[in-house]
Each structure stands twice: as structure tokens, then as C-alpha cells.
Amino acid sequence: MKVFTAIQDIRAHIDERKRQGEMIGFVPTMGALHEGHFSLIAQALKENDAVVVSIFVNPLQFGPNEDYEAYPRMLDADLEKAEARGVDIVFAPSAAEMYPEEMQTGVRVHEGTEVLCGKSRPGHFDGVATVVLKLLQIVQPTRVYFGQKDAQQAAVVTNMGRDFNLPTEIVTGPTIREPDGLALSSRNVNLTSGERREAVWLYEGLKQGALWIEEGTYRPREILEGAKHTVEANISGTLDYMDILTYPGLRPVKEWNERVIIAGAVQFSGARLIDNIILSPGQKGRA
Ligand code: PAF
User: What is the domain partition of the chain in residue ranges?
Assistant: First the structure.
């Protein structure tokens, strides 16, 4: 496995591999690799000749009071795991390599950010879109992989790909869960043991909402009331939001004839957890 920290070195290496006709799969991460990342890596290995993983905790996507400093960093362990999973190339740049000077340009996401996480994390998706565009320019992959757990991120990046005619195919892989249902996340390590036990209730609430959407008996507002109650009655953290929207458009649901997402976020003492379920038209009742 090759590890690069300099942009010009990884570029030269990937240029060479592409000259040899290799298709490059790319899994961008912020490290603290877990089974969720490994499932994207496995999919990328299947669909491409070589797989690049980037490990970079991107300061641009953290707000002033967010967990940039506390975000888990464990590069040596990550490199070992990446190698064991068959990753060919790791790109682990420093912040100075990625942002040698303050950016004079950036991507501004102007639709789909006033809902879900965007509401309480102003500027977050601009930071994500900007770094993803930079990483795609550096790696120039055939395909890039994002997890469905970060559904709003996957939607924003997919929409950016369409808006900017990016040549890379943008692929979304399924959410991977602990046996009790908790979605895997690098932030789970920052839960206390009590919070870890409660954390599964976010998914329980979403599942209940999804079931009601499928049954078609209730309207979105009623569904959300019930699902929110299920979460709030069982956690010590705060439910930041729970919503039902079209996906990937992230617009209010008027009729049940589109794909919809039911998504929620819970703030615990040291970690903010998000989760969602996406339902296709055949799975739903009436709005
Ligand atoms: O999902 C993440 O880990 C990050 O938001 C990403 C896509 C690597 C951009 O920093």
C-alpha cells in the first residue's frame, strides 16, 4: 500500500496508473476507519482496479463550537486497517498541504442546506463540497463512494456532480449497523457507555416512522410526532431534528410518489449522531 501526503506525489502516481488504463475508486474519509468505511472500500475494490482512501479531518466543515479538535485521529491504526482491507493508495495530507493559504474561492451549496443538519450546522456543507471538489481534482477517480448514513452529504455531493458536470461517477453505499441497529460512525467512540446504550433509539424512532410511512395511515406531521416521542422518551441527549423530505431533492413531501427520507440527529454530551432511512415509492402509503 502506498501512502502519500503531498498532492503532487499522489497526482503523479495516479496519472501513471491511469495511463496504464486502471479505473480508480476513491473513498474520502476523515479517518477513524470502521466497518462503514470498509464496506465502501470493498465495493470500490469490486468495481475498480485500484482503490484510494483519503484520510483528512477537514477544518472547513467544522463550525466554531463543533468537535474539530475532539474528532478522533488515529492515523497509524487507520493505515494498518486500510492495508489489511486491500486499499492500494492512502492520501493523508496535512491541513497545510490542503490549505496552504486561506481559500479565496469555495463551493457554496445553495439548496438542500436549510434542512436537516444544514439547519444547525451553517456552512458545513459548503466546507464538505469544497473539500470533496478539491479531493476529486487531486485524485481524479473513476468513481467516488459515500455512505448513506450521511445522506444529506451524499445528496449535496451528488447534486454538485450534476451541477458541475464532474466526470467522476458518484456512488452511495448502504449504512452499516452494529448488531443492535446503531449506525456505525467515527463519532460513536465519543459516547459514554450510558449514551451508547441509548443511542439505538434514534434508529428505533426512524424505523417506527418508516413503518408508518409504509402503512400509509398517517400524514408526515403525525408520523414525526410519534417518532420524535419514541426517541425523546428514551435518550438523555437532545433530539436536534427529525424530518421527512424528498430524496435526494430534500424538499417537503407533498405526495408519496417520490423517494423520501426520514432522518434525525441527536446531540449527546460528546457526540452528535445522525441516521436515516430512505424509502422508494413502492414502499409508501399516502401523504
Ligand atoms: O464523510 C466524511 O467523512 C467527510 O465529510 C468527507 C466526505 C471525507 C469530507 O471531508
Answer: 2-173, 186-277
Res 285: pLDDT? 58
Index of the ligand 1 atom closest to the CA of residue 58: 10
Q: For the chain, what is the mean pLDDT?
A: 95
**pLDDT (tens digit per residue) in 102-122:** 999 999 999 889 999 999 999
Confidence band, pLDDT 50/70/90 cuts, at residue 217: confident
89, 4 Cβ separation under 8 angstroms: yes
Mutate-to-test residue for ligand 1 from 58, 62, 113, 274, highest number of ligand atoms within 8 A of CB:
58
Is 37 designated active site?
yes
Report pLDDT for 154: 97
* Catalytic residue (one of 13, 34, 37, 110): 37
Fold of 2-173: Rossmann fold (3.40.50)
Percent of the chain with pLDDT over 70: 98
Q: Is the pLDDT of residue 36 over 70?
A: yes
Domain 186-277 has CATH 3.30.1300.10: yes
The residue nearest atom 9 of ligand 1, judged by CA position, is: 128
How would you label 86-114 residue by residue, b for 16+ Cβ within 10 Å and e otherwise? ebbbbbbbeeeebbeeeeeeebebeebbe
Which residues sit with their C-beta closer than 6 Å to ligand 1?
28-30, 58, 61, 128, 131-132, 150, 153
